[in-house]
Structure formats: structure tokens, C-alpha cells
Amino acid sequence: MSAEPHDDPVEPEAPEEPPPLGTWPRVYAVVLGNLAFWILVFYLFTRAFQ
Amino acid sequence: MRWLDWIVLVVAVVFIVVYGVWKGRGSKDLKGYLLSDRNMGWATIALSIMATQASAITFLSTPGQAYADGMRFVQFYFGLPIAAVILSITAVPLYHRLRVYTAYEYLEGRFDVKTRSLAALLFLVQRGLAAGLTIFAPALVLSVILGWDLTATNVAVGVLVIVYTAAGGTRAVSWTQGYQMVIIMGGMFLAFLIILWRLPEGVGLIDATRVAGTLGRMNAIDFRFDLDNRYNIWSGIIAGCFLQLSYFGTDQSQVARYLTGRSVTQSRMGLLVNGLVKVPMQFFILFVGAMVFVFYQFTAPPIFFNPVEVDGVRLSAHAERFAALEDDYRSAFGERLAQVEELVAASSGGNPARQAAAEAELRQADARMAAIREDAVAVLRANNPGMASDTNYVFLSFVVGYLPVGVVGLLIAAILFASMSSTASELNALASTSVVDLYRRLFRGRASEAHYVVASKAATVVWGLVAIGFAELFRGHQTLVEAVNIVGSLFYGTILGIFLAAFYTRRLGGAAVFVGAVTAELVVLAFHLLTVLGYFDLAYLWYNVIGCTLVLAVAFLVQPFLGGAPARRPPA
Q1: What count of other Cβ atoms lies within 10 Å of the Cβ of residue B91?
Q2: Which residues of chain B from 410 to 449 reach within 8 Å of chain A, CB to CB?
Q3: Domain residue ranges of chain B, discontinuous segments joined by +
Q4: pLDDT tens digits for B188-215?
């Protein structure tokens, strides 16, 4: 049984691309805002038809 | 199925298998085989994540769920976008920076090799069983509705997945999942359009939605906080977030999808796009089910959607009683149909008083039908006490009974693809965990890259055969399906606890977390044993909470006594 971790060659990290809206907090805000939007739509939908 | 359906089905399946083998060719090293050379863009990652999560039973049971229980199941997914954001901030950059092949590899850097091996073993047991269920559950529904041989369906799905997953590795899995997801959602959209087209003349989408709402199927949001109520906005956001954090952050079948990203940005975007799309997508699938429900307001539904159970009771001592209930159900349907038509006429006539009266009458007529169906289910259960609900059979029996030739083949291909795409991710994850976390780390640390690629292919085949074996074992023991879910819950909480300790605590070391994990697992197993022996009555979903909490609690408790070096931080 080997106790040694496997040695992978160290890879150079690729340069990071910028996120679509410039910063990550903006992207996260869109994702969470999208969730809030759908919850609102479903709420109105439930009120209208249920 | 007619010949055109068979042609559509065979062409679609052969295309996917050949495409998978072709697309995945040429991986010479482990990075190429297990991580697709880390060259995937966000769109492929997003589709791959969706296809992995959406198993065939999702597409079979979700519309059935809306048919039986309405749209409220959509709330179950509200925690997913929140989990996607949390993991994008924490897990994704961490896994990328450490250049890991599996999530469990990270645990060695953070804790030690024994904690990593424990988490990997727990995952292998849980996911190995689940892979059998992923094959078996849709095969059972297909065999009941289409009369296919169950063993042949299990083996065919399993072998097809093994062929392209073993040959092409992660690249084949991810690329085929993209096409599979397009066909699955295209098929669902086509089914939706055909349902609307098959509604009676003069009944539009708004009328159909109003009918569904009157009968309690448009209950998408429920703000009431109630621990007994499985689906409300609070359980969806809070408990759902924990569940999705665990699934997307620690389950290798999902982690492997975003580890293939060519950069942190691509991996994050793959996960976040899933967070954007998943909730409306599930709403749409549920809405298709609600429209199937409306379709059966105008067309007489069977009293029970599993024909095998119905055929069984017709040959039993309960046959006479069941036939009488079927007659009652048919006449109750006639009364309900009259009320549905009155509601549609009243709502288009713009008379609120008439509409309110029609709604009340319709609810009463529907309640009469529901009561008769309940009696029929009781008779079926008297004939077969182990009988499962017919929710999973609603959508497929509608597809086979009412969709045009060719579209039936496409929808069945979509259901098979959903099964294949989830199974492919599971086999791929089982193989990578077996080889990277156990074989390479503990037994054979200095072999060539070509050796590990061969080992990974062999592991994929072995796990595929194990999955087919489990799927066959479930045959004739449908209650084992629930047993597999219980087995999953026995381990998921402990794995989540280990990862939460790794991600979010600084003070805990490997020895403390290992003690916590072993203790938690033993306590969860003890709870289960006491439940089985009748000393407790604990729903198995609570095992997840108990396991996760105990790992952290015990680890914090024993940490001061274990001493030693502080927990290692992941290298920057």
C-alpha cells in the first residue's frame, strides 16, 4: 500500500477570463434576482389561478 | 409502438452512442479521460449539469406529480440558485486552484488521507446503489406501459451507457449530455404543444389553466410555514439549499461536471446558468403535467395508471368490486365533464357569479371522482399490499395513448436519454473516485498515465455491470427502491458534514473530523437499526440532518483533546 500521494505535474494556471457583467457580485445578483423574479411570478400566478 | 416510433428511437439512440464514442476518442492521460483536458465551455457544462440531475424518473414522475398534487413541487428547487452562488464563491475556485480530479482529493489537502478515503468510500457505496436505481426505475415504467422485457431494458440501457462512457470518459459524457438535454426538453415542449392542440375547440391555455387552478393544481407558492408540509417556500429555500449544496458541492457525479471547465469563469458560469434555468425549467415540466391533468378533464382517464396492477385485480377475488368502482368512476367523469364545460363557458362569458358557481360545482364533482378513485386504490392495495402509487405512470401512459406516431418514439428516446445521461455521470464519477481516491492513492501510486486510463475504463465497465446487477436485483422487489433512498440518506449527511467542516471551519483538524464522521455514521446506522426494530419512528430524510450535525458537533468536541497540528489550509 503506497502512502505517497501521486505527483501530478504542476500545470500553469490559465489566465482568468472576466465574468460577463464585469464583476462576480453582479452575476450573483442576477442569479438571485432571477430567483426572486420567478418566485414573484409564481406567487402572482398562484393568486390568479388557484 | 409503431415502426416510425422504433425508427426515431433507434436512430436517436445509435446517434448518441456513436457520437459519444467518436467525441471521446484519443484521451491519452487521466486529465484527458477524467477531466476532458479541462477544456469545456460554460454552455456544455451547464447542459451536462442539468442532464446529470434530471434522471428519467424526473421526467416521468414530475408531470405525474403535478397531475396528482399540483405545481407546489417547484418550490423544492428554490434553494438551488442560492447553493449555486455559494458554491461559485467557495468550492469552484478552490477545486480549480487545487487542480483536483475529485472532490474527495481536496479533503486530503485540507485534512488527511484517511478522511479523504472515508468520504470516497461512503460516496462509492451510496452512488453505486443509486446507479442501479437510475437504470431500474425508468426501465420498470417502460416495461409496464410498453410491455418491454424488464431485464432486456435494464441490460440495454446499461450496456449502451457503458460503451460510450468507458470508451470516451468525461468528454463523451459531457458532449452527449448536451444533445440528450436538447432532445429531452425538445420532446417535452412538443408534448406540451400537442396537449394544447388536443384540448377541445374553444378551450385555450387560459381556460385550461383556470380549470387546473379550480381543481387545486396551480398551487405553485405556499407561504405557510409548516414542518409537516413537505413543499412550501421555506422548506424549498432553507432545506432545499442544504440539499443542493450537498449534491452540487460534494457529489462527484456533479463536481466532475464543472471540474472540466477551462477556467474558473467557465465552471462558475456553467453552475450559475443552471441556477438561472432550473427553476423555470421545473415549472415548465410541472406545467406540462398540469396540462395532462386538464386533458383528462375532457377525456376519461383510467381509474389507475399502472395497467399491471389493474390487470392483476381483474383476475382476483376483488374483480367484481373493482368493476363496479370503474363504472361509478365513468359516470362521475360524465358529471365532472359537464361542470368543466360549464366553467369554460362561464369564464368566457364574463359572468363572475356564474363562474364562481361553476367552480364550486366542479370542485364537488372532482371530489366525487377522487373518492371513487381512493376506494379503487384501496381495492388494488388489498390485492397487492406492496403496490406503489401510479404517479410515475401518468405521463408515459398519456404519451403512448394520445401522442402521434413518431412523437411517441421521440419522447421514449428522451426518457431513455434522461436515464442514460444520469447513469453516464454516475459511472464516470464512480470510476474516477475508485481510481483516483483509492487505487492510485492507496495501492498503485507510481504507474504510467496510460495505466490509469485503462484502470479508469475498467472501473467504468465494472461499475456499469454492478449497476445493471443492482437494477436486476430490484426486479420483483419494488420496495427496494425506497430502501436505496434510505441507504443514500444513511451516508449523505456524514459526507456533507465532512465537507462543511472542510469549507467553513478553520479550527478543525483531520483527526477530529475523522472521529466525528465515524461517530456520526455509527449513530446514524444505530438510529436506522432502532427504527427497523421498532424502537423509533424516524423518517429517513432526518438521517441527513443527524449525520451532518453530528460530524461537526463531535469534531468540535474532540478537537481540544486530540491536539496535534492545526488543520492544514489549502495551498493558495
Answers
A1: 24
A2: 440-446
A3: 307-387
A4: 999 999 999 999 988 889 999 999 999 8
